[in-house]
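INTERNAL AUDIT FORM
Audit reference: QA-55
Scope: verify that the stored structure record matches its stored sequence.
Auditor: D.O.
Record contents follow.
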Amino acid sequence: MENSKKIGRNVPCQICNEEFYVRPSLEKQKQTCSKKCFKVWRSIQAKKKGYGLWMIGKKLSAETKQKLSLNCKKRNSIKYIKEYIKKNGAWNKGIKHTTQHKDNLKKAKEKEKERIYMRNGRYMPCNSCGKLAYFGNSLKTKPYCSKKCSPITKTTCKDSEIINAFINSGMTLKDIYKKYHCSRVCCKKILLKAGILEIDIRRLANKKIGANTKKHRKFQIFPKTDTSIEVKIQNFLKELNIEFLTHQHMNIRDSYQCDIFIPSIKLVIECDGDYWHGNLETYNNWNNLSQKQKVQKIRDYGRTNELEEKGFKVWRLWEKDIKKINLPEFKHELEIKNGT
């Protein structure tokens, strides 16, 4: 098959002058090479003829074209707009509202206020300027309508009082903010100017958070589900009819919740996992343990010493031994620990 000859020809674009291929049937319609050029050409044609883009390509009479061009020129001119505003004003100027319509508007506004009051809060006067402003029900401090009126943006006490409160009484930024009613940002800037490091500010806050968590931890059960080795020893104690407590909070310096506590004997039973507590029989050497395992072993050693000093007996069982142990073996070892 011979190559078919091209029917069309290359035509220059009216905007960028680049040549593009066009068929003879589309020569009159296509006058640009791309969509970008077509948009520019269309806007130019609209400006020349004086009417909107939506009318390009439509067959209009000469009279309609003249009318449209005159109207577009008038409406776009600034003089026409100013004159129209002077004569007519806003779109709703001069429209008379009926009495029924006015009453409906008033009722709607009253209902909106009632709904807001019921759901969120109420309108109250500002303490500094006296303006009415809307405040929520969760408002505890004195109401202020804006940042300019409120004293939170400014310090309401001397810098020396804030520095003494932090250094001498050991108050955090949150406590200073509540007592002296000044923003935390202002307090922080004052402390940093006085030469106090940002690390010390954070450290004091973390100490207080740690103390609060210890208080709440007494009433919290952690972990929520017991491990398989803990459940096995709990079942042994149930079969032997021995009363015990699980996750009992031990009030020592490094306070924690023990696994099992028998109050009649004052015995603490700890079911230690080989991995989490670092059993040296499985890992063979101290150097083979990870950093977390080393820290946990040191912590366990300190806790056992503290409990023994207070008069408690501590019995630590490894996961490896618990899996092998039977009920008579467990009973025999428990009697040895009790001293009977």
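Auditor finding: record pair retrieved intact. The chain has four domains: 13-87, 101-151, 154-216, 228-338.
Action required: none
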